Amino acid sequence: MSKNRGFAAGLAGALEIDPPAPEPQQSRLGIGVLAGRSNRLAELASGAVVARPVELVDPARCRIWAEHNRDYDRLDEARCSDLIESLKAQGRQEIPAIVRRVKDDPAVDFEVICGARRHWTVSWLRAHNYPDFRFLVEVREMTDEEAFRVSDLENRTRDDLSDIERARDYLRALDRHYQGRQKTMAQRLNVSEAWLSRYLDLARLPADLVAAFPDPPCAQDQAHHTPQAAS
Q: β-strand 110-114 against 97-101: which pairing, if any?
């Protein structure tokens, strides 16, 4: 068992978990409202900014995507307390969730790809003396594979997902979206094959070995490195 523990610790410790640093936003020059509007139109025309529809909707008309790795049933007032207080202070939801339209269920209009915690919080506020709160969403057209990649980018910045949970998501996606082709998956995620391989190896560890740890290794407890982008 000590040998297995050492192997698992070495594997987890080798994970490179941080996302690439975001590219700096373009500076916007201009004086006054007309200049700012002119710059915005120029950015849209050049393709530097993509305009996507944003809507305020009833959270009851939304469902959580089946592949969303947030355990929605475990969300409660304590786990969402920071977001509850933030939305109360702002009087609204500032950052939209990412959704896509639903066509196969008359009971809902949207499927939440990213933003389950925001969805839970708005729903909770509406049921606890804030009935006017609406769920802010950005509507996108996405395939399941595109939805996975969008969700993955958001998840890389989250500290409340353990590496083993993230690894299992990658392993499921490998067959579901990439027909078992690891190189293709690494290219689509813009990471190196070695980086992805470490996660897949972690996901394949025997369940009894993982159970030997009192808590799964968390991203915030690891050494932070930037995943090497695929060339």
A: antiparallel
Give the full edge-to-edge strand order of the sheet including 62-64.
Answer: 54-57, 135-139, 97-101, 110-114, 62-64
Long-range contacts of 123-131 (CB under 8 A, 24+ apart): 123/59, 123/60, 124/77, 124/80, 124/84, 125/84, 125/87, 125/88, 126/59, 130/88
**Predicted TM-score of the model (pTM):** 0.66
Report yes or no: 137 and 110 within 8 Å, Cβ to Cβ.
yes
pLDDT of residue 58: 97
Contact 13, 201 (CB under 8 A): no
The whole-angstrom separation of Cα 187 and Cα 191 is 6
Domains of the chain plus CATH, in order, are 51-142 (3.90.1530.10), 156-231 (no CATH)
Among 66, 93, 227, 95, CA closest to 156: 227
pLDDT digits (tens, 9 = 90+) for 164-195: 888 889 999 999 999 999 999 999 999 999 99
Tell me the residue type at 217. Answer: P
Residues 6+ apart with CB under 8 A from 115: 96, 97, 98, 99, 137
| SS3 call for 54 | strand
Calculate mean pLDDT across residues 158-162: 70
- The closest alpha carbon to 183, from 170, 192, 175, belongs to 192
